[in-house]
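Usage example:
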Amino acid sequence: MGKKVAIVGFGQTYQRSSRKDVNGVELINEAVRAALEDAELTINDIDAIVIGNMDHFEGVNYVDCWSAEGSGAVMKPIFKVTTGGTTGTTVAMCGYYHVASGMFDRVLAIGWEKNSESDTTGAIVTAFHPVWERTRFGGAIAGLAVEASKYMHNYGVTERDGARVAVRERLHALNNPYSQLHQDWMKGMEPEQIVDLLVTSEQNQMLAYPLRMSDMCPRTDGAAAVVFASEGVAEKIAPTPAWVISTHNRHNYVFLGDINWDRNDTLEAAAKKVFEDAGIKEPLKEIDVCELYLPYSYAGLKWMESIGFCGPGEGPKLVWDGVTDMDGELPVNPSGGVMSSNPIGATAILRVGEGALQVMGKAGDRQVPKDVNYSLCTGFGGCNWADVMLLGKKKPS
Amino acid sequence: MTEKNEGIELLTIGSGEAFQPFNWSVGRYGSYFLKELKDNKTFYGVKCPKCGKVYVPPRKVCGRCYVAMDELVKVSDEGEVAVCTIIQFGFVDPSTGYQQPVPYGYAFIKLDGADTLLPFFLDSTDPERVKVGARVKAVFEDKRTGSIADIKHFTILD
Amino acid sequence: MEKVAIVGVGQTTYERRKEDTFDELVFEAATKALADAGGGIGDIDNIVTVSNDFWDGRTISSMGIQDAAGSWDKDISTVEGDGTFGVLYGMMRALSGSFETTLVVSHMKGSEAVMNLITNAIFDPIFQRSLGIDATSSAALQARLYMEKIKASQEDFALASVKNHKNAMNNPNAQLPMDISVDDVMKSKMLADPLKMLDCSPISDGAAAVVIATEKGAKRFKKSPVWIKGVGHVSDAYTLGYRDLASTRALDAAASKAYKMAGIKDPMKDLDVVELYDAYSYMEPLWYEGLGLAKEKKGVELLKSGATAMDGDLPVNPSGGVISAHPVLVAGMTRVVEGVLQLRGEAEKRQVKGAKTALAHGINGACGQSHCVFVMGV
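Running the assembly step on the lines above writes:
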């Protein structure tokens, strides 16, 4: 009837806008080595591998085959899963199901991307329908910009509110040596001050109203790998495994024009199902830390409402009250999040790995200063596709 | 970032002129939709027999009800802006290389009679006019070829 | 392993060029599988789609078809690889405790793109791609290596093509049912020595789907379950020069694992029917060796003996195999579908009498780098 599964190791590469020093296979290998080292395992201990990325960013077909010599898959079971932006969480969920099925005890799940190797926007354009959407497309930003402007229209949210989220993400990233963006000029400044600067700066280019450069995520080269292990095995590998309590996803929409722009109803549905499974009734109280896939600033307001941490329109208050800062009741993205580092195929699995580090107490300078039992991780992509994974310190019964 | 890399020039290999051509099937409804667009400057959607939702552009399956749809219904060439933005950076049409002049207005439009939104360019970049709820009407190209680009843009009606 | 079964199967016909769009193909295969199982989309707990971004010309290929696969308000994922791996993942999810039933659906249209540009993209962009190497030219290297190793002739390999195209005449879904001779194969156009046109599988369009259920989940449906008794998947090294293309060590390992789970000791005796992935004629005898049907170097001997013909001890590819219809990704799932039909006694003209245990095999990557083997039984 299914096995309990825990994360026992996590490794990531340094994420930079361009990692010219490694080719894709080497980048993957770096993450795999880091994960194995973290778990104190060797590749021989791994029973199966799953890998994911978004094909058109590197232009390699059958990445699971191509990377075999770097991922450790030679003479091992491996296959590839991919679902666009949600790829990382899709990979993590796949690693989880490998072990939960009882068929494998120790599984390596790898997400990676070398966004520098291609025209990111050009490749993202190809995610959309060639006949109906691609020729009249506003870039990935347009879909986010329209959501933000509708949110502002519905609740009177302002540019300052969006900027406050951006500031939080970038301040958190200062504690994360792996993250791409380190905006050192922000060190020691008050969030209010930085928000003022961002919304008034001439250099902070408006890209698509209301989104400015500072509201967006970068594009990055990076890889990350998570080791999943079965109950009975996990406890022998890690002193504090991060148990997978529940995971669900919803990829309801296939065209941008189908999306509900007033509510992120896919994230609502996926989060609701996860909380139901886990018996969580008051998410704000019961969740200790989150690593959320927030591709742009306003998501850090609106999607807090979608997950159920607060009511509609209340996102800004949550953030301005400091609830989501490192010393707040519910720290969000201690790693700096997607807005600080975005190697697309790895981005969502970085959320899972970082969320696991918090449970395991291994997050170093970015460890939240409170006891962590539940850690919530999400993935995002495509047409408001939502993946949710809840990790916990206590083994589920 | 190992020691061995110091002093070595880091290369990249380009894909050169390589590209992969495609010929995507439009399908029966899509073909009908494009033909009506080209010949009659008319929009069609397809209606779900179960929930009654009208999908524009038309498609085979109503995802929510998981049934096949086959009732084509005419919808208006006028509608309302559901969400919108003004884009400040360039967009290059991947099949023609044409670059949309910057800035440009972009919106998801609910055509009267349709239940889904159609993303498209607007003819205005005036933030006073490009807003949620604005009434818009399709403007067509004089020379049409049977593609979604036969629609030039949507104009904001005052 | 907890009991898990396939309770529904569906497939479209396989043709050089179908007018349907991707989502129409997916809907057709999925609804056929659900109808075959005697259930509806409401009986499905989660979905796995199988598609490839290169063939669809779309970087989130699954986005084009998810709603046609039944994604609304369900957990869903996408495998980018052969259909057998999709079935495997669907099976894992059914065994995980989170779901009792999984719908797995794959689609592919070879007609919408330029095949050899897409298979060229399998090869490493830095060192091998600019050579123009593609699926067929790399297969030719493997064929030559195998030929030299076992001292076989082109005529030997042609026997597989002849057998399978003839078998396809009993399969209403197959793209290339043909009554040809070894001579016809030898006379067909040379594409990449030693592979000629009739040694190669065609370019195809099509889709297939399966409904997987646990013992408990199977009760929702009307069809008798076909149990998955064993499964194994293993990948060899990637770089063509790093592995011995004439060795089947990855397939060996995958098959051994599946056989161990299923309690198969002597595959020639214990299996009743085999559907293997013969993308090229020489692959059939080569995979015989990896599957343990023939000892190393004895693949062609087995083929020549007639033991794998329709009237032989262990019929291989009664459906006509991949050489008769090759929608990439779908073809592995089709092998599973055909195996299920055999075990249910529903294979009509291509039925192997009294089949109780079947093997289905799929490959991924150039020259069969990665393999997935299923053993199913009733």
